[in-house]
Records
---
Amino acid sequence: MRIQIAKSPEEIAACLRLRHLVFVEEQGVSETDEVDGLDDSSTHFLVIDGESLGDGTPVAAARLRFVPAEGREDGVAAKIQRVCVAPTHRGRGLGREIMEFILTHVRTDGRTKIARLSAQTDALGLYEKLGFRVTSGVYMDAGIPHKDMEKQL
């Protein structure tokens, strides 16, 4: 498995296809909720089962945005979004691996010391094991129950 920042148009397209498979086709999220116009200003992450996109299969993806954060000395938070793993590759720890890769990227970037995300309630355990804590009650997003979470880096 190879985890990388998706840079080429082909790699970003692979991330978007995975998201469509998981969120739109599998979970029933509407296309308009999934495609929110923020992908061009995001950093995309891709897990490939193989050495490269040319000889491997995209199996997990996520995106990262640096967003304004009121009350923070640095004024910024790292917002992790659209974390997904292909159904064929679940149960192998890829969600944890891509999250650890992203958190290392955020620490190295140095713009902020806080990571935030909006977690589907079914995935709370994964994020709690990574040190995230719940910061909101349950709310619906795209018809799926979520809770906000954050982690100090």
---
Amino acid sequence: MNSLLSMTGFATVQMEYNSSEVTCEIRSLNSRYLEISVRLPKILADLENTIKEVAREKITRGKLMYALNFSSLNNELQNMKINPETVKSYKNLLGQMNEAAGLDSEIKLDHLLFFKDIISFEEDSVIDEEIMSFIRNITATTLDRLNEMRAQEGDHLKKDIMERLNKISKINNQIIGLSKDNPKIEFEKLYNRLLGMLKEDKIDKTRLEQELALIADKVDITEETVRMKSHIELFQKNLQAGSPIGKKLNFILQEMNRETNTMSNKSTIIDISHKIVTLKEEIEKVREQIQNIE
């Protein structure tokens, strides 16, 4: 049986690579789709798609925020370089400005440092099969740890949802019991009301009974309660199947909401109306919970 996974979680893994401490962190949040944002050292930017491929193998839904840090990357992999020709050009430009302004100011290094492009960072390419394999490994390990946390949270969600489904089923059964007399009660109410308004010997009682029977049938919620029971059973079955299942559960819940709305519109018994209100409240609580399920 697959685990039910929450879409929220956090995991971090530390490993060593060529005497450098490497930290991989992944945080996941709710999302209708799979969204992956990757933060890497600039020199490893070309590995973004590789990391996303690994993530897609293990995650189907949620917003992932991925970060990879090398403790010694800046010192070992980046070299600061001066652009001599650019420095000369800016020095000449400052000299021309002096001359144009009629000044005789000394041009100092501080003046040249205002121009940011006189210094550049030359990075050596370090992406080879070895580091690519290492990053795949640390990424997959962190994702596995993230899924462990998401599974733990998913177990809590599953337990809570199952309890609420049992409550919904119990309320629905109570409504079934109360609703058996709903058409009969409505028929009697309408029939007695009309008899009180008209003289009994001046109406076609057979036709009246037919019309009232049709009206009473409109308040019969038997079909809705039966479908509700079916939806609950389908929900429970899919919940046991495990993730990814969040979207399907949401669709089933929409059908459950539709049945409760129809019941509410058709029912004329106050006790049933109260039960339906409680039913809607529990369904809404389940809806909130499944927004967090992958």
---
Amino acid sequence: MALVLGSGLTGAQLAEKIAALAAGKQHQLAAYLADGRHPVTPAAADGIIRYLERCPDRAVQQDPEGSMPQVTGAGREAIADIPGGFYATPSRTGNNDLDFWKVTEGRKPGVRFVKRVIGGGDTKYPHLVEISRPEQFLVLNAILQAGIDKARKDYADNEKRCMKCGIHLTDDESRAARMGPVCRGDR
């Protein structure tokens, strides 16, 4: 007997619901999450569904025989354009004006990882917090929507930190460039 969750749906039913929604969206979910093969918890399902609802609809074209839909759109290619560094995006919760993020480039081309930047303190580097993979894709899409350059500049301007390495900017020249001398290549 399957466990029935608070929503009245089992983990497998939630996975099927996600698969149905994912079929019509441009998204960055792993295949096992998007195709309904992997049962999910209610909390994970909530995050994934919110992510998918914000994703653009897929442009679907039929192949010559008319049997296989072909997906077009930016997809992973757009995310691959986001360089490693620090970013600010409009706050999704409305509790703040901006949310702050660190993007790291993975070993494989086009792979990106995101951590939340938590403010406060006088540490040399910002405090980072892990976030779930679905949340990371939401953030990467938010960076794309805000504009890569704008999101980087907003981080540097608001946090007075380098948009590449996150270290405090201590002089007017560095703040104007939004990078310290090492990241600018001045040293």
